[in-house]
Design a protein that fits this description.
The complex is a heterodimer of chains A (395) and B (453). Chain A has 15 helices and ten strands. Chain A has 395 residues and is an alpha/beta fold. In chain A, the strands form three sheets. A six-stranded mixed sheet of chain A has the order 3-2-1-4-5-6, sandwiched between helices. Chain A starts with 6 loop residues before the first helix and ends in an 11-residue tail after the last helix. Chain B folds into three domains: 91-277, von Willebrand factor, type A domain (Rossmann fold, 3-Layer(aba) Sandwich), CATH 3.40.50.410; 290-342, no CATH class; 352-452, Herpes Virus-1 (2-Layer Sandwich). Chain B contains 15 helices and 15 strands. Chain B starts with a helix and ends with a helix. In chain B, 39% of the residues are buried. Mean pLDDT of chain B is 77; it is low at 1-44 and 436-453. Classes of the chains: A alpha/beta (395), B alpha/beta (453). At the A-B interface, strand 3, helix 7, helix 8, helix 10 and helix 11 of A face strand 7, helix 10, helix 11, helix 13 and helix 14 of B.
C-alpha cells in the first residue's frame, strides 16, 4: 500500500543509516575490581571515565545512536542509564515532552549544569551525569554483608535486562518508522504488494525496497560486556546465561566481550555463538584504546574489517558426576545430564529416571566374541605359517 | 465496515441452509457441489461477531478496546501450561508434504504449494534450532505415491535444499495418506526407542486415494508408537482426525486446520516444541553415548569426512578423529553422535520453562510505576470508583497493563512478558537479584549444571 507511493522510497533512502543501539554491561563486582586495581593500576573510576568517552564516541557517530548501560553487581543487576524512574530523561523515549518544558523534566535535568559544562553536547552530559550518579548510588548502597555473601556477579540478569531494553527500543523504533518487527510479516507484506502492483517498475522498486529493508532496516543493536570477574561462581547462572546467548543468536545481536581480568568460558562461548568480538586485554590500562579500536565499529562497518577474534573457544563439557572434562560422554535422554561413564544402577543421578543401558552394557560381550573368533582362527593360521590370506585349498 | 460484515455473514448462513437442503433432497444429483458446501458449512461456527464486543471508551473512540484486544491476543499465545513436563527432547520426525493438485489452490497466497514449501523450510530451520540433537526426514505425496524428498538426517541444510528443489515441480495428482504413512513408518522403523517417533503431515486435500485399508495402517502406527500430527489447509477431514486421535492416545489437538496464512504458520511452528512424554513410555529412556569434539584449526585446508569439502576449521570426532565440518552431526565413519555442550543447553528451556506471570489488579498496581525490565511507564492507577469501569474484556489480560512474576514480585509490561517467555526464557527480575529468589526446582538442577563450565 505505502510502497505505491514513490516518495516513501526516496525518504527511506535519504536517511541512509539506521541508528545503532549500544548496550554496555559493566561488571562492577567490587572483589574483582579491587584485585584488578592493585595488579594493573586500573581503578574503577578510570575505567568508567574511559567508558564514558567511548559512549560519547558512539553517540557522536550518528545523531540517532543510542546507548544504555547496565551494571552487573554482586547482589543485583541494575540500570545505570537510562533509569526507569527517570524515563522522561531519555530524550528519545517520550513523544510527549518534545517541547522541552522545564517543569516536565525530572530534577536531574532541572538543575543547571555547572559552568564548565555549559557548552557540552546535551546527550553527552545526560549520559555522563546519570551513569556517574547511579553508579555512586549503587556502590554506596552496597553493604559489607552483601560483599561477604557472594563474590560473583549477576551477568545473566544484566544480559536479560539489556535484551529487554533492546526489545523495547526495537519495537519503539519500528513503530516510529513504520517498519515491522516481525520479519515474517514483513515478507508477507512484500509478497502482497508485489502481487497487487501491476506496474512493472513499481513492482521492481517494491521488491528491491523489500530486499534492502530486510537486511538494513531496523535498529541495529549490540551488547558490550566489560567483564572483570572470573567464571567461578557464575556456574549457577549457566542456564540463564545460555538462554540469553541463544536469544541474542536468534535476534542477531552480537555480544562483544572485553575481558579486563580473569577468564570466563561462558563469555567466550557467548562471543563465539553471536559472532561478536572477544578480547582479553593484555594491558588493561589501555582500555580506551582497545574500546575505540576494536569495539566502536557497528555491525555494518564490521563486514569490511578484519576483527580480532579468538579461534580456540573452550567447548569442553564436564560430566555431572565427577566434574571431569570428557571427550566422549553419556547423556541421559530425559534430562540431558552428562556422565563420564555408564551408570552403575542405570539410574540417572539428576532426574532419577531408570535408563536403558543396552548398548553400553553389551560392550564387553562384543569384545569377548571377537576373542573367541580369534582363538578359533588362531590354530588354523598357525598351521599355514604364512600371514598371507590363502584360500582353502581345493584338492 | 460493520454493516457490510453483517451482510456477508448473513449471506453465508443462507447459502449454508440452501446447501444442506440440496444435499438432503437429492445428494446424488450434485454430489461434488453439496459436499463442498457441507465442508464450508463446517467452519460456520467459527464466524464470531467480533464487532459486537467493541465498546466505546469515555472519549468516544474504540482505541482502548482495540488496544486491549491486541494485548489480549499477544497474551493468549503465552498462557500455556508451564508445568515442567517430561518431554521427548530427542525426536525423530518425518515431515510429509502434500504435493497433489489440490495444493495449486490460491486461497493461501501465493499458492498453497509455495506457501507450504516456504513454511516447511522455516519449520526445518526452527526445528533444528529447538531440537539440536533430533533427526528429520521429508516425504511428499504426489500422484497417489509417496515420494522421498530427503532422508532422515540431522543436517538442516540438506532438507532445506531438497525442499527448495521442489519449487520447480508442480503439484500433481491425488495424495495417498496410506502410502505416505507406510513410507514414514518404514523410515522410523529402525530409530532407537529413547527418541520420539513423529509424523507431521501438511495436508491440503480433502481426500486420500489409498491402495488398501488405512485403518490397518493406523493400527500398526499405534503399535509402533508413532505419533501423527496433521495441519490441514482446506477443511476438517474425518480420517485425519481419527488418525491423530488414535496415534496420540485419544488426544486430537495435533490436528489443526489453518484459517489463514498466519494461523498456518503458527500450527506448523507449534510442532517445533518437543512433545510431552506419556507415562507408559518412560521405560524407553536410555543413556546415549555422545562425543564432545574440540575445534581444530589447521594452517592448510583438508577435506571433511561428511561432505568432502576442503576447509581449514572443523571438529574432529572424539572416537575416530575424522573431521566433520559442522555440528551437531553423526560421525560419518564411526556414527558417534557429535555435539557441543551448548546444543544440550539449548534444550534446557523446554525442560525448565519460565512460569507464567500473573495479572495485577488495580488494587496492587500502585506498587510499580514502570516496567522493571524496559522502564516503560505504566498507566497511572485511576481513582477507586473507576476500577470496575475498565472491566476485564478478555481473559488473561491485565487491567493495569502490569504482569507480575510470582517469584520475584516484579512487574513487567506486556512486551517484556512476551519477550521473556518466547525469546529469552529468563525472568529479568529473578536473574537480577541474588540467587535466593530462583525457583527451588531450578536451583537443585543448576547446582549440578555448573560442571559444564
Amino acid at each position: 500500500m505505502n510502497t505505491i507511493d514513490a516518495t516513501e522510497h526516496y525518504s527511506t533512502s535519504a536517511h541512509d543509516r539506521p541508528p545503532s543501539l549500544l548496550t554496555v554491561i559493566l561488571d562492577t563486582n567490587p572483589h574483582a575490581w579491587a584485585q584488578l586495581s592493585s595488579q594493573s593500576a586500573l581503578p574503577l573510576s578510570t575505567a568508567v571515565a574511559n567508558i564514558l568517552v567511548f559512549l560519547n564516541a558512539h553517540l557522536a557517530c550518528n545523531y540517532a545512536n543510542e546507548v544504555a548501560v547496565v551494571a552487573s553487581h554482586t547482589q543485583k543487576a541494575t540500570w545505570l542509564y537510562p533509569v526507569a524512574a527517570a524515563a522522561a530523561a531519555d530524550p528519545n523515549q517520550p513523544p510527549g515532552d518534545k517541547d522541552g518544558d522545564t517543569p516536565m523534566l525530572p530534577q536531574t535535568q532541572n538543575r543547571p549544569p555547572p559552568p564548565h559544562e555549559m557548552n557540552k553536547y546535551r546527550p553527552f552530559r545526560i549520559v555522563e551525569e546519570q551513569v556517574t550518579q547511579n553508579l555512586h548510588r549503587l556502590l554506596g548502597g552496597t553493604t559489607a554483608d552483601d560483599l561477604s555473601a557472594t563474590t560473583s556477579t549477576l551477568m545473566a540478569g544484566a544480559l536479560t535486562l539489556a535484551l529487554s531494553h533492546i526489545n523495547r527500543r526495537t519495537i519503539a523504533w519500528a513503530e516510529a518508522h513504520g517498519g515491522e518487527t516481525d520479519p515474517n510479516a514483513h515478507a508477507n507484506n512484500n509478497n502482497t504488494t508485489t502481487s497487487t502492483n501491476t506496474a512493472g517498475g513499481g513492482a521492481a522498486a517494491a521488491a528491491s525496497g523489500g530486499d534492502k529493508a530486510s537486511t538494513e532496516s531496523g535498529l541495529q543493536s549490540r551488547i558490550l560486556i566489560l567483564s572483570v570477574s572470573s567464571a567461578t561462581g557464575a556456574a549457577h547462572q549457566y542456564i540463564p546465561i545460555m538462554n540469553a546467548i541463544f536469544a541474542c543468536q536468534r535476534l542477531q545481536i552480537p555480544i562483544d566481550v572485553c575481558k579486563l581480568a580473569g577468564d570466563a568460558v561462558f563469555l567466550q562461548q557467548a562471543a563465539d555463538a553471536t559472532k561478536g568480538v572477544y578480547m582479553a586485554l593484555a594491558e588493561p590500562r589501555g582500555l580506551l584504546q582497545y574500546l575505540m579500536m576494536a569495539f566502536l565499529p557497528d555491525q555494518r562497518s564490521r563486514r569490511h574489517l578484519i576483527l580480532p577474534t579468538r579461534v580456540d573457544v573452550d567447548f569442553r563439557a564436564a560430566c555431572f558426576c565427577h566434574r571431569r572434562v570428557v571427550d566422549i560422554g553419556f547423556v541421559c535422554s530425559i534430562c540431558l545430564s552428562i556422565f563420564c561413564e555408564p551408570l552403575e544402577k542405570g539410574e540417572c543421578l539428576t532426574c532419577g529416571s531408570v535408563l536403558e543401558m543396552g548398548d553400553y552394557g553389551a560392550k564387553p560381550a562384543v569384545v569377548a566374541r571377537k576373542k573367541k573368533k580369534k582363538k578359533v582362527r588362531g590354530p588354523g593360521n598357525g598351521a599355514s605359517a604364512t600371514p598371507t590370506p590363502t584360500p582353502t585349498p581345493g584338492p | 465496515m460493520a454493516d457490510s460484515d453483517e451482510e456477508y455473514a448473513g449471506e453465508v448462513s443462507e447459502d449454508e441452509v440452501d446447501g444442506s437442503q440440496i444435499s438432503s433432497r437429492g445428494g446424488a444429483a450434485q454430489p461434488p457441489r453439496s459436499k463442498r458446501k457441507k465442508n464450508r458449512g463446517g467452519a460456520e461456527w467459527e464466524v464470531s461477531r467480533t464487532w459486537e464486543s467493541l465498546v466505546e471508551g469515555a472519549d468516544g473512540t474504540i482505541n482502548s478496546t482495540v488496544e486491549g484486544l491486541l494485548e489480549a491476543g499477544k497474551r493468549k499465545r503465552l498462557l500455556r501450561d508451564t508445568t515442567p513436563l517430561q518431554r521427548g527432547i530427542i525426536r525423530h520426525l518425518i515431515l510429509v508434504l502434500d504435493l497433489s493438485h489440490s495444493m495449486a489452490e490460491k486461497d493461501l497466497r501465493p499458492t498453497r504449494y509455495l506457501l507450504s514449501l516456504r513454511y516447511a523450510q522455516e519449520f526445518v530451520r526452527e526445528f533444528f534450532e529447538q531440537n539440536p540433537i533430533s533427526q528429520l526426514g521429508v516425504l511428499g505425496l504426489r500422484d497417489g505415491l509417496a515420494v522421498r524428498v530427503s532422508d532422515m538426517s540431522g543436517n538442516p541444510t540438506e532438507h532445506i535444499s531438497a525442499i527448495q528443489a521442489l519449487r520447480e515441480h508442480d503439484p500433481k495428482g491425488l495424495p495417498s495418506l496410506q502410502n505416505g504413512l507406510e513410507m514414514a513408518r518404514g523410515a522410523l522403523f529402525h530409530t532407537p526407542t529413547h527418541g520420539t517417533r513423529e509424523v507431521l503431515i501438511i495436508f491440503g486435500s480433502l481426500l486420500s486415494s489409498d491402495p488398501g485399508d488405512i485403518h490397518h495402517t493406523i493400527a500398526t502406527l499405534v503399535s509402533e508408537k508413532i505419533r501423527v500430527g496433521i495441519v490441514g489447509l482446506a477443511a476438517q477431514v474425518a480420517i485425519c482426525r481419527e488418525l491423530c486421535s488414535k496415534t496420540n492416545h485419544g488426544d486430537d489437538t495435533t490436528y489443526g486446520v489453518a484459517l489463514n496464512e498466519q494461523h498456518f504458520r503458527e500450527l506448523v511452528m507449534g510442532v517445533t516444541t518437543p512433545p510431552t512424554t506419556f507415562s507408559q513410555r518412560q521405560s524407553a529412556s536410555s543413556l546415549l553415548m555422545m562425543g564432545f569434539p574440540s575445534r581444530a584449526v589447521e594452517a592448510h585446508p583438508s577435506l571433511c569426512a561428511c561432505h568432502s569439502n576442503p576447509s581449514c576449521g572443523g571438529y574432529s570426532c572424539s572416537r575416530c578423529n575424522s573431521k566433520v565440518c559442522g555440528l551437531p552431526a553423526e560421525c560419518p565413519s564411526c556414527s558417534l553422535t557429535l555435539i557441543l555442550s551448548t546444543h544440550l543447553a539449548r534444550s534446557y528451556h523446554h525442560l525448565f520453562p519460565l512460569m507464567n506471570w500473573v495479572e495485577v489488579p488495580w488494587a496492587r498496581a500502585s506498587r510499580s510505576l514502570a516496567c522493571f525490565a524496559c522502564g516503560i511507564t505504566f498507566p497511572p492507577v485511576p481513582p477507586r470508583d473507576q476500577w470496575q469501569a475498565a472491566d476485564v474484556q478478555s481473559r488473561g489480560m491485565s487491567v493495569s497493563s502490569r504482569y507480575e512474576c510470582t517469584v520475584c514480585r516484579n512487574n513487567f509490561c506486556i512486551d517484556c512478558d512476551l519477550f521473556a517467555h518466547e525469546v529469552v526464557h529468563n525472568c529479568p527480575g529473578c536473574q537480577s537479584e541474588t540467587t535466593s529468589s530462583t525457583t527451588p526446582g531450578l536451583v537443585q538442577v543448576t547446582d549440578r549444571m555448573d560442571t559444564s563450565a
